[in-house]
Amino acid sequence: MSEPEVIRKLDGHVLILTLNRPERLNAWTYDLGDLYFDLLDKADADPEVRAILVTGAGRGFCSGMDAEVLAQSASGAKRMPSKGRRMTHAMSIRKPIVGAINGACAGFGLIQALHFDVRFAARSAVFTCAFTRRGLNAEYGSSWLLPRLIGHGRAMDLILSGRKFDAAEAERIGLVNRICDDGELMSAALAYAQELATWCSPIAMADAKLQVNSDWDVSLNDAEDRAKALGHQPGHRQDFAEGVKSFVEKRAPNFIPLG
């Protein structure tokens, strides 16, 4: 049997998902996307999973939509993810998603990378929006996400030009958090994900994701009030007590799983 288009591996409390079409630089298809979203949903519901790490097999992370899919779309064919999900479905996952961007990250591949909470990149990684060079606008929420990550002017440059840029520029403008030598990318990204899984409250991380992703649209006072309300929920109070106790006792905390 051939390997699945997304490989799943559990390493402790970190789920590693690997996009697995290396002969096509992991170009996106709807079948691959449906499997990827299914695995994300299962991870979100699994209390054993506390953090998710996503990377690509071979030389690329994701080179964008597969050429055959693009040709079908250009001819008028319409297809959306299964189960009523959006292309931005990964944004709805409560658990932290760390990206290990190991190579080409283009078009729809870049959009999926924008959904990660923290992005590591190989020194050899290359990025591009590419949309305007295919006769497309800023697709699938990239016009909302990219300016929030790197600022209006930089987002306009990348979206309008569709130019390629390297990992050094991606780090300089804030698109990626850390650059690693190619051979050290996975170990560094996994170590970071393991740190989240070991030391950070799953409930607190889930609520922090919700706050950061939605507090753009509310006032400072409303953001503060919601933080207070979340902090007084029962799970938070229990994890807060455990977090303080484990800090005093100099040990790893035993936080409530999120399932």
TrEMBL record:
Superkingdom to which the source organism belongs: Bacteria
The organism of origin for this protein: Paraburkholderia podalyriae
InterPro entries recorded: ClpP/crotonase-like_dom_sf, Enoyl-CoA_hydra/iso, Enoyl-CoA_hydra_C
Protein name as catalogued: Enoyl-CoA hydratase
Pfam families with a match to the protein in the record: ECH_1
Family the UniProt entry places it in: Belongs to the enoyl-CoA hydratase/isomerase family.
Gene3D superfamilies per record: 2-enoyl-CoA Hydratase, Chain A, domain 1, Lyase 2-enoyl-coa Hydratase, Chain A, domain 2
